[in-house]
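Title: Prediction job returns without error message
Component: structure pipeline
Severity: low
Priority: P3
Assignee: unassigned

Description:
Job completed but the reporter wants confirmation the result is attached to the right record. Sequence as submitted:
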Amino acid sequence: MRDFGGIVERSPVRVVRPRSADEVARAVRDAAVQGLDVVPRGLGHSTYGQSLTGGVSIDLRELTGVEVGAGHAVAAAGTSWREVLAATLPHGLAPPVLTDYLDVTVGGTISAGGIGGTSHVHGVQAGNVLTLDVVVDGEPVVCSPAVRPGLFDAVRAGLGRHGVITRATLPLVRAPERVLSCTIPCRDAEDVLRVQREVTADAMSAQVKPSDSGDGWTYGAKAVRYGDKAEPPPGTTETEELPYFDFCDRLRPDVEELIRLGEWARPHPWAMVFLPASRAAAVIEATLADMTTAELGLSGVILIKALRVGDVPMLAVPDDPVLFSVLRTASPGCAPVADMLAANRTLLDRARAVGGTRYAVDSVPV
């Protein structure tokens, strides 16, 4: 069995596909009797075997369903964020934070942290949860900030180590009908961080791409403002008006193309580190100065995202964090996986030297 990273392989003793919390609890109890580890798995979008095990793999993809209430939604852990959005948008509502890629599960991203374009305003997905249904020690329980708060804190961004999330109650906010997506070219990493700090936007991200000349990098921020009458911020050179759902699902055409080209199935040695904002630009520039496009891969992506986290104790980040993501793909003719992993290790060492931390679903040999 492999995950999205395609680097680590493990064969579980048993795969269980529960359709209820009681079935999850039974699987956990059975595994305990046999002395086997239990690892929950959604769509397996981790990149270094975090969702794999040699024990019991609990595949939660059949544990699905969404119920929309007054200002909240209750979603089973195996439900994708696409399915959540399909249920909430008819009510004019949406979760405050959505992953950029919608085809991952509620339980999976809450267990990891869950970062999206609105995380500079609303924090991470693990910080936007009202209650959680969890199987712990073979028993289904409910936890929240007021009920079993220690468990609530342990399972959010806990990577499934402290319990199996089976259902989440999520807050909802008013969804816009349309958005204005604005491209803002930037000089360098410091300029990207300035734009993300100074420009008011409902969603914000930035990307680094190889320059047209092939001997350097170009930087650009994307500021998204909600509403029919949104105005572009200063520095905007290009705008695109989109229905809200099309904006949320913006990666789908790219993913379909990557699947067609075979790139989606290749190994993905991803590096993702949280940097303190005051030191982020220096680390980013040093990393890119040492890096070639062959070390990124044909469909690799580099992202910079200033964010806030909120009260999520299991997600270790420096103060005023910036997420720097080097999302490599081991494409044919590019650097081998081993070299990409070594580069990830170097980036993590750089990050730790300035007080940074790693996002634990990445691909870094530790």
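Comment from assignee: result matches the submitted record. The mean pLDDT is 96.
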